[in-house]
Design brief:
The complex is a heterodimer. Chain A is of the alpha/beta class. Helix content of chain A is about 35%, strand content about 20%. Chain A has 18 helices and 21 strands. Chain B is α+β, with helices and mostly antiparallel strands. Chain B folds into three domains: about 140 residues, Gyrase A, domain 2 (2-Layer Sandwich); about 80 residues, 2-Layer Sandwich (Alpha-Beta Plaits); about 70 residues, Aminomethyltransferase beta-barrel domains (Elongation Factor Tu (Ef-tu), domain 3, Beta Barrel), CATH 2.40.30. Chain B has nine helices and 20 strands. In chain B, helix 2 packs across helix 7. The longest helix of chain B is centred in the middle third of the chain and has 12 residues. Chain B is globular. Classes of the chains: A alpha/beta, B alpha+beta. Chains A and B meet through helix 13 of A and helix 3 and helix 4 of B.
Chain lengths: ~475, ~375
């Protein structure tokens, strides 16, 4: 019998499993599909090419996970360590890079005042975000001043923060996409912007990095690390339910009918799936069930376009953001929440070098979109893709004619983001009402994302509990 | 909130000499029919008839109803036999008391919950997890409480059962009317359809004429319940509203007797992790009614707190519920500046009880100056 079962071999599950195995536990990972990696392993056919359904640029991967699990030794490397953000606005382009002076020069084209204010804004924004790392990166505490600012930002719309700093639509629009968060369930909170700024890639705060080989390369590195640590990876082992012994977990029953014993289980799946669908009714508590039964209604879709040539608009490596004003995000969010494809969409486009055929692949993230459109995705896909392509074409003429193939990834079902969770300690998100059952995936993160941090911290908690339980 | 007339309103209006009304659970009800004291005392010596149609009553039905009630309530209602009843609490996820009531098993997969305070949203949301239907029966029935030592004789005289054991329920056809009988709380509860309500009232009044049966208002009912040590949510303490609240725990209210710690129920972890057990006790006070939550002092040492209090006509004294440490002995205390004496509950035995565990009513009444020496011997 394993000491620990981990449900889901996505990046978070693999991180948790590897840490626990390194701590000396016997760990088995139960993965429903035929390959590890979760969304990163899902392949989307785009003509003759197959793109990953996962994020092409990573912005939140925990530096400690990379270091502790020696992911670079297991093959993780980055093609681009710090993608600049380029806003494609109405007749104007604004590029924000790591270089503050370069940013000022770009901002000065539309507003001298914005250019003058940018350095102070970035300094204070990044300083607060760094102070929040004690809470968002570790199981630590923050000082009273930071907490006071945290509570103020929780109830401050991002639009207010940005509008009070910048006057040009270009500068305001540049922040719109990130303000909608990884999971835009709470649109426009300034705290979400701060959370994004607290992240780090390749030692650079607020950076977006592109791994060589795409998100699948991260999975390959994590799988290699897990295997080296002695983790048993069981593929095609879909969990049907969790079995309880009183108020404690005692194992998992697979859809095949096999019962896998385990007194400690970490789930990298959603809170709803873990606590409502896997457990008997009421086992997680009635108030908990009420809180989590409604998944996020709004999410992010992904469009992958295979092109025969790269439009000149996207010639330089960057995160190309197309979107309307930030204040329109609230209206777009409301439309998406009602099951409609919003009239104002926010796009982030990254150019991938696919190889010989096709020459260029555009990976486009689209926010906000309904998780379950009223018409169903069969009908809504066409409308969303047409709108997105039309938006892209406004900035990259004749793009539609260059498309050789396309793939579409609808939003995945996620737990609704609760802003209060962003101020909670990790234990509040990782521990569950069932003894021995922990969450270690996106559901346990302050903002759902692919950081591996929840896996690392959950593993530390479990290891500590196991140590206490050992006579 | 609009007010509803009770199914017995026409009869209550005829009897309500002082036109004293009050609102409970959205119903317009007689506060008293002329004299609160007279009605409360009548229940000690004869019998009174009180309208409890306002109590929230919901039926929980479905294949998973036994599993649902087992998880919802602090005692295993799924283990009840048909027609049996049990007093229960239901708790938040954090182990705080949300509600208190009586559960009756009316069929294998049907349970009836009767409570003095509604908690519809919580129970409906929880029932949905089990696919259990929650049907509100509050407005489809009239219910009368028959309280007092003569209540059994009145039921017999009326042609209804006279041998219903405590905490049991049955339905019967009473001279052409479908009625239900529950023996719980202070006495018997007779339920009927709203259409039959006035006939049932008239028949019971007629059967009780030889026993000086009086109608009693809600004020007298409150006094009787307090004297009998029956704690009610909302009236006597503030239940938790938020789903994760941790207070008040059953222990902090002295309601541990309504919790089976070995049973798996919602909020159990919170109960097990909560502080030490407290004891629900009574205080006989010399002064005015203290405010709810007033600290109790044993000399200068804190010794618990009061809950609700009211004047007892039978004891001619202010009485209050108190929550004190389990090990706190009975004795002299002060509450809100008034001197008092801590005693075990009930202050007086339940009026319907034929055999009392507490002090005899006559002894207490005589001590309070209601009975002259030799009177009633």
């Amino acid at each position: 019998m394993s000491d620990v079962l981990v449900i889901g071999a996505g990046p978070s599950g693999l991180v948790a499993a590897t840490y626990l195995a390194q701590a000396g536990a016997k760990v088995t990972v139960l993965e429903a599909s035929a390959a590890a990696g979760g969304v990163c392993a899902t392949r989307v056919p785009v003509g003759a090419y197959a793109a990953s359904a996962g994020p092409q640029a990573l912005s939140a991967l925990d530096p400690r996970v990379i270091k502790d699990l020696k992911l670079t030794r297991f093959g993780l490397s980055f093609a681009n360590r710090d993608l600049p953000l380029t806003l494609l606005g109405d007749g104007q382009t604004l590029t924000l890079t790591r270089d503050v002076h370069e940013c000022q020069r770009s901002l000065a084209v539309t507003s001298e005042k914005d250019a003058a204010r940018y350095p102070a804004f970035r300094r204070s924004h990044f300083a607060f975000a760094r102070a929040m790392r004690a809470l968002w990166w570790d199981d630590g505490t923050i000082d009273a001043k930071t907490r006071s600012h945290l509570h103020r930002l929780q109830v401050t719309p991002a639009s207010l923060l940005i509008e009070s700093t910048f006057e040009s639509d270009a500068a305001r629009g540049a922040f719109a996409f990130d303000a909608l968060a990884t999971n835009p369930a709470a649109p426009g909170s300034a705290l979400v912007l701060a959370w994004q700024a607290a992240q780090e890639m390749c030692g650079l705060q607020g950076a977006f990095a592109v791994p060589v080989g795409g998100p699948a390369a991260l999975v390959d590195a994590l799988t290699a690390a897990a295997t080296a640590a002695g983790v048993e990876l069981r593929l095609n082992s879909e969990v049907a339910r969790l079995d309880l012994d009183g108020e404690a977990v005692r194992g998992a029953t697979l859809t095949s009918g096999e019962m896998v014993e385990g007194r400690t289980i970490l789930s990298s799946l959603t809170r709803k799936k873990t606590l409502l669908e896997f457990l008997p009714p009421g086992a997680a508590g009635f108030a908990t069930a009420r809180r989590i039964e409604q998944p996020a209604k709004v999410g992010e879709a992904k469009l992958v376009l295979a092109l025969n040539t790269c439009p000149t608009t996207f010639a330089r490596p960057a995160r190309y953001v197309i979107g309307d004003k930030l204040e329109n995000a609230s209206l777009a969010y409301a439309e998406a929440r009602a099951g409609k494809i919003p009239s104002d969409l926010f796009l982030e486009t990254i150019v991938l070098e696919a190889g010989e055929v096709p020459g260029v692949v555009l990976s486009v993230r689209i926010r906000p979109v309904p998780v379950t459109p009223t018409d169903g995705w069969n009908i809504a896909t066409g409308r969303l893709v047409q709108t997105a392509v039309r938006l892209l074409e406004q900035h990259a003429p004749k793009l539609a004619g260059a498309v050789q193939g396309l793939g579409f990834v609808p939003p995945e079902s996620r737990d609704a983001l609760c802003l209060a969770d962003m101020a909670s300690p990790w234990a509040a998100r990782i521990l569950t009402p069932v003894r021995g059952l922990y969450l270690c995936g996106a559901a346990a993160e302050p903002v759902p994302c692919m950081s591996g941090r929840a896996g690392r911290i959950a593993a530390a908690m479990v290891a500590s509990h196991l140590k206490k339980a050992t006579p | 909130m609009s007010l509803h007339a009770s199914p017995f309103h026409a009869r209550a209006a005829e009897a309500n000499r002082l036109n004293a009304w009050e609102n409970r659970g959205g119903f317009t009800l007689a506060a008293d029919y002329g004299s609160v004291e007279e009605e409360a005392i009548a229940a000690r010596f004869g019998a009174v008839l009180a309208d409890v149609s306002w109590h929230w009553r919901v039926e929980l039905s479905g294949e998973q109803a036994p599993a649902f009630v087992a998880r919802l309530f602090t005692r295993d209602a799924a283990a009840l036999g048909l027609g049996a009843a049990i007093e229960v609490l239901w708790l938040t996820d954090g182990g705080a008391v949300r509600g208190q009531g009586t559960v009756i098993r009316i069929a294998m997969n049907r349970f009836l919950l009767a409570a003095a305070a509604a908690d519809a949203e919580w129970i409906e949301n929880a029932a949905r997890l089990y696919g259990v239907a929650v049907t509100n029966r509050t407005h489809s029935a009239g219910v009368l409480a028959l309280i007092g030592p003569a209540s059994g004789k009145i039921l017999k005289a009326a042609g209804l059962v006279d041998n219903l054991p405590p905490l049991s329920f049955r339905t019967t056809v009473w001279r052409g009317l479908n009625v239900s009988l529950l023996r719980a709380g202070l006495g018997f509860e007779i339920g009927c359809s709203t259409d039959d309500a006035l006939i049932v009232w008239d028949r019971l009044r007629a059967a009780g004429r030889s026993y000086a049966l009086l109608p009693a208002g809600q004020a007298a009912l409150d006094i009787l319940e307090t004297e009998s040590g029956v704690l009610r949510p909302v009236r006597d303490y503030a239940p938790a509203c938020e789903g994760f609240a941790a207070m008040p725990t059953p222990q902090s209210l002295g309601l541990s007797a309504l919790v089976d710690r070995a049973h798996l129920f919602n909020g159990r972890a919170g109960v097990l992790a909560a502080g030490p057990d407290m004891r629900l006790a009574g205080i006989l006070l010399d002064g005015d009614t203290p405010r709810p939550g007033a600290p109790l002092l044993n000399g200068s040492e804190p010794a618990g707190r009061t809950l609700a209090s009211r004047f007892s006509p039978a004891l001619r004294q202010t009485i209050a519920f108190a929550v004190v440490p389990e090990t706190m002995p009975d004795g002299l205390l002060t509450a809100g500046g008034s001197a008092g004496r801590l005693i075990g509950l009930p202050f007086l035995p339940i009026p319907a009880a034929t055999e009392t565990a507490g002090p005899s009513v006559e002894v207490l009444m005589r001590a309070a100056g209601y009975l002259e020496p030799g009177n009633g011997d």
